[in-house]
Amino acid sequence: MDAIGRPHIAYSDLPNSDLKYAYKGVAGWQIEVVDSEGWVGHFPSLRIDESGRVHIGYYDDSDYDLRYAYQAPGSIDLSWNLAGTTLELTWTKTIASAYWVFGAPNVPHFSPGFAPGYQYRLAVLPPYTHTWSTTAGVSDPSENWTFLVMSVDQTDLEVARSNEWESSTRR
């Protein structure tokens, strides 16, 4: 149980040989695959630290080794791919309730935030997502777009933030 009484569970999905993590948030149960490389997830043990981050220890039956997974302490690696005029953002997954994608054209001081309307927020994506595509700003060379991805918890508080990516750096 976390500090406000919500349950969190780490478990082995035996048919798929995956380590999974589930928690009950305001939208009900959320489930994430934490590790799926090989025959993993056996004998999981979960701990929630003082800052609310999840830590999971488990056994990897493929390598006969103990493994450790934890909630990233504040950073997401953001990369991009451009195919024609479609930009695809890809990021590393964290343990999160949702991912928010922010982007804005020609913003000298890009500062996504929690202001009314969540300034510059383009999309809200489910926890298992790690890609997002758009054509906004990539077909017009005069526009310089800046993007970032934010991981939020079940109460919409920021857990991690990606590096910023500027569309001008790919031209």
By CATH, the superfamily of the largest domain comes out as Immunoglobulins
Give start-end ranges of low-pLDDT stretches.
none
What percent strand? over 45%
| Percent range of helical residues | under 10%
Number of strands: 15
| Shape verdict | globular
**Given this structure, which CATH class of the largest domain is correct?**
Mainly Beta
**Main sheet summary:** 6 strands, mixed
What is the gyration radius calculated from CA atoms? 18 Å
Count of folded domains? 2
Distance between the termini: 48 Å
Q: What's the topology here?
A:
Layout: E1 8-13, E2 18-25, E3 28-35, E4 42-48, E5 54-60, E6 65-70, E7 75-76, E8 78-83, E9 86-91, E10 98-105, E11 121-125, E12 131-134, E13 145-152, E14 158-162, E15 165-166
Parallel strand pairs: 7-14
Antiparallel strand pairs: 1-2, 2-3, 4-5, 5-6, 8-9, 9-12, 10-11, 10-13, 13-14, 13-15
How does this model look, in words?
The chain is built from no helices and 15 strands. It is an all-beta fold and 171 residues long. The chain folds into 2 domains: 8-70, no CATH class; 75-170, Immunoglobulin-like (Sandwich). The radius of gyration is 18 Å and the shape is globular. The model has no long low-confidence stretch (mean pLDDT 78).
